[in-house]
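note to self — DONT lose this again. spent like an hour looking for the file last time. sequence + predicted structure for the chain T wanted, 279 res
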Amino acid sequence: MATASAPRPTTRPTGAKPGAKPGGPRLEQLQTFYWTGKDKRGKVMKGEMMGKNENLVKAELRRLGLTPTAVTQKKVGFFSRRGKITAKEISILARQLATMMQSGVPMVQSFDIIASGQKNAAMTEMLIGIKNELEGGSSLFEALSKYAVQFDELFRNLVRAGEQAGVLDTVLDTVATYKENIEAIKGKIKKALFYPAAVIAVAIIVSAILLIFVIPQFKTVFEGFGTELPAFTMLYVHASEFMVAYWWLIGVLPLPRVLQPSSPTSGRRRSPISSTGAC
């Protein structure tokens, strides 16, 4: 006679909440490690490497043909901040990817090589994240979409078009050229504005010195004349009195603008690319 088997109890991972959807392992925060090792010839080498933990850094060093002797985590100071990914770094990244793909280097290996040569920790973490997405089966467009702040809509849409048309290397070369031209124009604008900004800054400093230190000395001389001063002279005297009383406003007024966090999408605009190099 057949016996009914008892229902098998369902199990879930320890600490998992009821009703939670199963997912992949949570990515650990990447850390910076100082490492010391020896190559195959016994030469001592030193450097820095991003990794999740000390053991993974040692494994990566062995994969590169090095024998690690010491791996220590880089301590982060109280006032230290993570580097910011600039538009220039994205421009350089586009050029490096275009060059490597045109040379036949696989995309995942390209991101691995570029990440190993970065000094900006934020840039290295982003590149490793993109590489992990590619290794997980995502397209380059899907991987870049997770970093929409660094890669604008134009960049991502062109990459998607290049992937669908099979000309990703050509599209990346065009995007790199476009980004380089934009950065060159920005550099020229900054150089053109530097001299006027310097002249204005010096004029403000000199005017503040005159109003705070020089004109008060003449005020006592003017009062000894016993006559009514012209309105234009009194304007400078009153401005001097205001500056002496509220000189600290010179440093306080710019603070709200400096401390205001910039929006991730600020300054983003759609700019057409010449159709001769698009695809």
